[in-house]
Amino acid sequence: MNAWHGPGRGGFFPNNIAMLFACLALAGFLASCTHGAEPGGFAGGRARVSDHFDGRLFFNPTLQGPASPPAAETPGRGRSRWIWRLLLGNDWPEWPQPAALAPGAPPAARVPTGALTITPVGHSTFLIQLDGLNILTDPIWSERCSPVAWAGPKRFQAPGLRFEDLPAIDAVLVTHNHYDHLDLPTLERLAGKGVQRAVTTLGNRGLIRETGIPAVDELDWWQSLRLSETVTVTLVPARHFSSRTLWDRNETLWGGFVISGPAGNIYYSGDTGYGPHFREIARRFSPVRAAILPISPFRPRQPGEPAQRNFAGVHMGPAEAVQAHLDLGAGLSIAAHFQVFQLGGDGFDDAPKELELVLRERGLKPDAFITPALGRPIDAAARPDDRNGPAGRQRADAKD
Predict the structure, then answer these.
(1) Which whole number is the average pLDDT over 50-60?
(2) Is residue 45's pLDDT more than 70?
(3) Which residue from 40, 6, 29, 154 is spatially nearest to 83, judged by alpha carbons?
(4) What 8-state DSSP symbol labels residue 383?
(5) pLDDT digit string, tens, across residues 346-371
(6) 25 phi and psi angles, rounded to 5 deg
(7) CB neighbours of residue 165 within 10 Å
(8) pLDDT-derived band at 23, boundaries 50, 70, 90
(9) Is 250 helix (H, G, I), strand (E, B) or coil?
(10) Contact yes or no for 268/259 (Cβ under 8 A)
(11) How far is the C-alpha of 286 from the C-alpha of 161, rounded, in Å?
(12) Which of 67, 190, 230, 393 has the most CB within a 10 Å radius?
């Protein structure tokens, strides 16, 4: 039996029935990862019909204007090509094994009111410490993001913080049910560590409750709840989709979160394509002190080409992320969703290099939108134009 070698390391071919069925299970995950598909919606039994729920499935409201995909695109065909390319051998670039880096120092137990520290763990996992609370976004410490432990996309970067070094976590935010964002083994470990509360999107409460976390709140877009007397979290729209199998596409909602407190408004997007929701988030929550935005997967530009747009609409590359940063008016943006799991055809360094290039093209300072060093805390409450502020300090730490 051939082993799974991961994206960029050749494919694999099932040579018995058991492996074939395992591949079908894995295909459900692969379908959830692809960025070549335009989603449909949710069968969670909710009666209300809104601009993103038709009574059965969730969907992305229709985009108007330049963010709309060209009519000639066929998203479903792009998705199937992506799945078979990954299953049966692909021409994606091979990612190098990065140099082993020591994990970051144990974070502070808590930060005081008005303070804001954001520590990147890897992929979309961030430890956000503000106003006396500790919050984790889409936590994944697992070796693979997959329905099975022995196959599927494997980590290229170790987590930036050791799990045992985590401070007491007051709330976990889960944006949607894809395996690289809703990781059951990690949630079970957090429940064992005493985490009492998770906040997620409609339809995911039951799955998260199975991990042992006792209090799970579900939110619809623009709904809010209090995490403490002074801190509120609001679910905000995203352009994405959901699925954990081949049969449950868009039966649960997806979104991002805005955390609001004395330290300011912090926006964590989860997975999203570019769209008008960024301007609406800015309208409702300005000023945005810090934004965490994905920059991969995307199609890298070829020599002489302008920056590429991801017309499939469910993920952003660096060019779209920079435009989102501008739409939000964010004081500081922090890159996410890159260099940990290979989920697209971009090379290991393509997203950070493209981000640097786009910032120069748009006339923005490098410290406006940073690619963080894993495990190194960012003092995001400092003024973004302070040369000794968050980006400068973290980059200096990374070079030591």
Answers:
(1) 90
(2) no
(3) 29
(4) -
(5) 889 999 999 999 999 999 999 999 99
(6) -65, -45
(7) 13
(8) low
(9) coil
(10) yes
(11) 31
(12) 190
